[in-house]
């Protein structure tokens, strides 16, 4: 039976509704908070959405999904099955807002795609605005047909997901850090990275910023890669600097200045020769809390050698 499409403007209470739901689900299912992710449009600040909190729960290997489903049903969730045959099972709970919970097997590509799409919208305001406009147009076109509305969004979602999904990244550095929470705050609050997922029990975060991806892992928790006889002393990463493409170096510079963090290399315009062309960077270098050097830059494009 077709369902109506009822979009609402962004509600600042949605993140709090998710946090409440996540706490309840973790207690019900006996899972850590890191297993529960806020996905869908209500997870993107400023984006219009149906008043329905979408939640992905990643189950550890070996967990009986039937038992988890029974627990959800006992708590008032209605099963909706696995519509796409991908091993992801949906459950809904009516309310204001409602909840839609997905049980995802470990390594689920459906879950990875949802996280990639969510992160892309969070990191790019223009992309989020375009998606919001598309949803408004489709809601007007299919006001009483939720299935047609969802299908019509598919091309946009797939194009964004293909550009951002983690599986397409061939190289992701992992930094050993002395304090996982301090490093995470530096990368998220000051540099603008988002948290794709975490393993708090290991002091581990997987971070994304646009198409850049980075892992941080606390020394002494879980497994740490060390070279025998080489002391782990600051500054870490000697001889290495990591280049990161960003949209707005000035906004990052302002946050660093307000936090009282000095730059290793001040803002500069630098051109690098590539064959008969020069590639331009507007860039600066800052050290993270453990001394890893990060070169953040805006792309200035290309020009013929000698044209300046």
From TrEMBL:
Provide a GO biological process annotation: response to antibiotic
InterPro entries xref list: Bleomycin-R (IPR000335), Glyas_Bleomycin-R_OHBP_Dase (IPR029068), Glyas_Fos-R_dOase_dom (IPR004360), GrpB/CoaE (IPR007344), NT_sf (IPR043519), VOC_core (IPR037523)
Q: Which ranges carry the VOC domain?
A: 168-299
Matching SUPFAM superfamilies, A to Z? Glyoxalase/Bleomycin resistance protein/Dihydroxybiphenyl dioxygenase, Nucleotidyltransferase
What is a single Pfam family found in this protein's UniProt entry?
Glyoxalase
Keyword terms: Antibiotic resistance, Dioxygenase, Lyase, Oxidoreductase, Transferase
By sequence similarity, the record places it as follows: Belongs to the bleomycin resistance protein family.
The name on file for this protein is Bleomycin resistance protein
Report the source organism. Allorhizobium taibaishanense
